[in-house]
Amino acid sequence: MKATAKSPANIAFIKYWGKTDLKSRVPENNSISMCLSDLYSRCTVEFRKDLKTDEIEFKNEAVVKEKEKERIVGVVERVRRLGGVKWKARVVTENNFPKATGIASSASGLSAVTVAALGALGMKMSEKEVSKLARLASGTASRSIPDGWVEWVKGRGADDSYSKQIFPVDWWQITDVVGIVTHKMKKVSSTEGHALARTSPFYKARIQGMKEKVRKIKELIKRRDFSRFGRLVEAEALNMHAICMTSQPAIIYWNEATIKVMKKVISWREEGLESYFTIDAGPSVHVICEEKNAKEVAKRLKKIEGVKRAVINRPGVGARLLT
Ligand code: PMV
Fold this sequence. Notes:
With about 325 residues, this protein is α+β, with helices and mostly antiparallel strands. Helix content is about 35%, strand content about 25%.
């Protein structure tokens, strides 16, 4: 009754910010993402008769909040209920990047727990059902289940909201060079941020434009039109952060290094190194470029004050059982 799973972080090009159902994590809009090849979580779940309580261990993490453990226990409990099992579980999880810094650690971590727990009980489910189950733990975790380029469909409600592949891994060689600018966990979680989104006076306008943006980005990915794709991705990130900054209370996820990287990306572009930024709920910056430019972008990123690491990611596969 033991299994290990590996699952990637993902980067959203059209983002999920705000929900129609807070508890079941039903989003206000569809979102579009790509699984990342080199940033991931690995998780082992073992159901054991001798355990009195669920045990959660985070490897290589100095700070672990009680809430993080509760979310993992929630996954284990849902899978236990589905499998009709009573045994408690030991969960050991680790990331190859700092969590809660804008690199989708909840996406990779909670999708890995979901797949490992199902695997430990030998339960087989369709990809659609697994993505729904992962969504209940973290919305973005549902997008780490399919391979490659993914759409999370908002659906008609909790039973109908899931993620699916829209293009395979090898569709387009776009890279996401992630500039990691901190190892400190953010102060305001994305769960809190989603709940505040509606307090922004601009939120209605954002949501009104989402259907068209989703349609447009899918068309640009299909045509492999990098310049238009990049411009839309960057504008979308700024749109989401405008909502964060105008929520009440305001949330500013950026730090000094975030802004330095944003400005540099714009000037590299003017010099002919075509790249665009996008930023999730944290200060780290994802610099999107074509594969031929990835090494140069990484080299330049590392020279910017405050950038601790630059990780090159290609489109990657979704969650996998390793055992
Ligand atoms: O970490 P979550 O699942 O609560 O949501 C975070 C959402 C963003 O990363 C900010 C945007 C996105 O769609 O990935």
